[in-house]
Amino acid sequence: MIIFLLITAITALSVFAIERGERQREKAVLGETTQVIASSLDRRVNTSGSYLIAGAALISTLDRVPANLFRRFATELRLDADYRGSVGIGWSPIVPRGQIDAFERLVSSETGQAFDIEPRPSRESNFAVPVTFFEPMKEESRLAVGFNMYSEKTRREAMQEAIRTERPTASGKLDLVQNRESARAGFIVYMPVFEPGTDQELIRGFVYSPFNSQDFLDSVLTRELVGGRGVRLYDGAPEPANLIASHAPERLTGNVTRIEVQLADRPMTVEVESARGDALSLLSMITLLFGIAVASLSMLVARLLTQQAHEDQAALDFYAEQNSIRNSLTRELNHRVKNTLANVLSIVALTRRRASSLEDFASGLDGRIRALSATHDLLTQSEWGTTPLRAVLEAELAPYANTQDDTLHFEGPEVELAPNDALSFGLAIHELATNASKYGALSVEEGRLSVTWSRLEAGLVEVVWQEAGGPPVPQTRSRGFGTELIEKIVAHELKHPVDLRFAPEGVRCVLQVPVRKPTEFRMRARSKKLGDHQPEG
Questions:
Q1: Is 81 part of a structural domain of the chain?
Q2: Is the domain of 310 the same as that of 381?
Q3: For residue range 359-372, what is the model confidence (pLDDT) as tens digits?
């Protein structure tokens, strides 16, 4: 009896230890899953916000927005997988009360379909914000055309907040389609469009994207990520009335992990519920049965428990490290996206001031965005580590290279550039190459281009762009956009002045580019089997 009671006590303690380890591991997995889902939702909303910012920048340059132009803009966005969950993108201008009838006739004649603004503005409001254009135009989207979004409180509050913050802002929980029995729960992200050249007190309307909440949540869930767990998305606090989307668990356990996330300046809560109930795990059941039945297994059980405890601790450490790395990756990604958007907005602003027509604006902007894209491809291949200076030159000057002549000449030591410096340097080379192909050495067959570089000191390299054999360079000339971009934006980003001279025999440009220490931010290497070695940081 004493031996039996002793083995029973040891077995009970063993089961308790196993269950404790299983619950700790499940808690860590829940935290990791919740963080992954929240980060994925945030990334999708940020992607939508980027499209809305681009649309607002374009529309602010137009006197009015015709249907065919908006359709073309929406089509050329080529909405990718990161845009899943969004119904589409739309345009809603502000229409004063006295201009409603004329606006209805204009839109009807332009689209060939009846257009009526409903409901009309109330006495407290002297304008309407109707749904005018929307892409892609599906049957359920067509039902919303003409709806005065400013008449509904939740939409109105989101639009007012977007005007105040001047950036994409999400609404609260609402029905995406009005006056319909099967209305879908969702929310809308608004981006205000201001009159150009004003102090942003004059608002023209809103570019917006509606999100079907359930589709939005399902777009980031996979069977490998969720398994039998439940996932819920709340607008604000995790209360039943605020639930906007959910994925049902295999069973209700009440064991949940929550995290608050800001989606387009709107606080929302992601909640993940464990599918593991109060029942003993399989390992606990085996330990209990064999511990009571066979006394000779007591030492073996003790060894198994020790090994399990070590594996549990290693798993907890691994999940904690993974969570820390993912947070670092998210912050780094946000930093990269903000820097890129700042460069794009600067290019858009300067191009708009220099463009004499919409076609001029579009073609100039297209080339410069493609230059950024080419350098981005190099950075992506290096996982946003350092990029060879020669590779940036070859990528930007590839259209002008010819293996049968010596038009292009590169010479210099091996130099690695940091990501932001590579982007700025690639943009400068693109502008110089564009100018050379139009007016300089690359515009004639006998023209020659030499790009040489050398290290000045630790942390700095000097790049010399020298054209020869091209048409004579006129000494009296107006400052173009490329000159202004190189001498202002590129010089500012590289933190060193640019010496750009238009000599009669050919353009000469001297740039000083920082050579920084390789970034310590690296994508996490694929970890080997747990227990073989500690994961590499």
A1: yes
A2: no
A3: 767 766 666 676 66
